[in-house]
Amino acid sequence: MKIDIVPYDKNWVTEFGRLKVELSKILGKLSPSIEHIGSTSVPGLAAKNVIDVLVGLEESSQFDFVTNELAQNDRYIYYKAFEAGLPNRRLFVRLKDGESSAAFEKVFLHQEKIPHEAIQKSRLANVHVVENDSSEWLRHIAFREYLKVHEEVRLEYAKIKADLSQKTWEHGMKYNEGKDSFIKREEKNAVEWYLSAKK
Q1: Which residues does 43 contact at the CB level (< 8 Å), separation at least 6?
Q2: Eight-class DSSP state of 96
Q3: d(CA 38, CA 8)
Q4: Could you report the per-residue pLDDT of 41-77, keeping only the tens digit for each?
Q5: Long-range own/partner contacts, residues 104-112 (CB < 8 A, 24 or more apart)
Q6: Sign of the C-alpha dihedral, residues 135, 176, 3, 124?
């Protein structure tokens, strides 16, 4: 499959706002923190046309409530398969309006059974659920803020993504692996910078 990288679109902020309202209603009992993360949250940065949403909970014991609530919503798919490698995160796909999870499995237990290309065409957003103030929360927020103010890193990231988008990938996770060394290096720098800036 090809990964399409498109120029920054200011409508991504509007779309995130709509998703934040939706998730706030669904998960209102928990009063979650909800943030726009990933490349679509960084002004001027080209990205896949997929919104990344970070949902922060007070404690991991609330994960089951989130899973149950989103499982009842026809527009969400649960990627349970990724919990083995990332036990402190829950990952969901929010489908585009008009798309139904009935076209796919509601819960994917095995990564090899995920129809990545079909879901990619129907995907509006990725929803990452973590604990507030966890290392997962910190790295996403720090990387977003770091990219906003470090132009040279932002430009390097844009070039890497543009180069990778020219290739054909087995699925989007393989595309992500192509960015992995850059992401790990710069996330480390971002966390150090972010924590230092907060002192």
Answers
A1: 8, 10, 148
A2: P
A3: 12
A4: 999 999 999 999 999 999 999 999 999 999 889 999 9
A5: 104/77, 105/77, 106/71, 106/77, 106/78, 107/71, 107/77, 107/78, 107/80, 108/77, 108/78, 108/79, 108/80, 108/81, 109/80, 109/81, 110/81, 111/81, 111/82, 111/173
A6: negative
State CA 177 to chain mean position distance.
Answer: 15
Give me the amino acid identity at 166: Q
CB atoms within 10 A of CB 124: 19
Q: In the chain, what percentage of residues exceed pLDDT 70?
A: 97
Query: In whole angstroms, what is the distance from residue 69 CA to residue 64 CA?
Result: 9
pLDDT at 182: 93
Buried b vs exposed e over 88-105: b needs ≥16 C-beta within 10 Å?
A: ebbbbbbbeeebebeebe
Residue type, 168: T
Could you tell me which of 69, 95, 43 has the C-alpha nearest to residue 104?
Answer: 95
As beta bridge partners, residue 94 has 76, 125
Asked whether the whole model's pTM tops 0.85, one would answer yes
Q: Which two tokens stand for residue 45?
A: 């940065």
Q: Round to whole Å and give the CA distance between 140 and 54.
A: 8
CA distances from 92 to 25, 71, 78, 126, 128 (A): 17, 10, 5, 6, 7
Three-state SS across 182-199? HHHHHHHHHHHHHHHHHC
Cα Dmax for the chain: 49
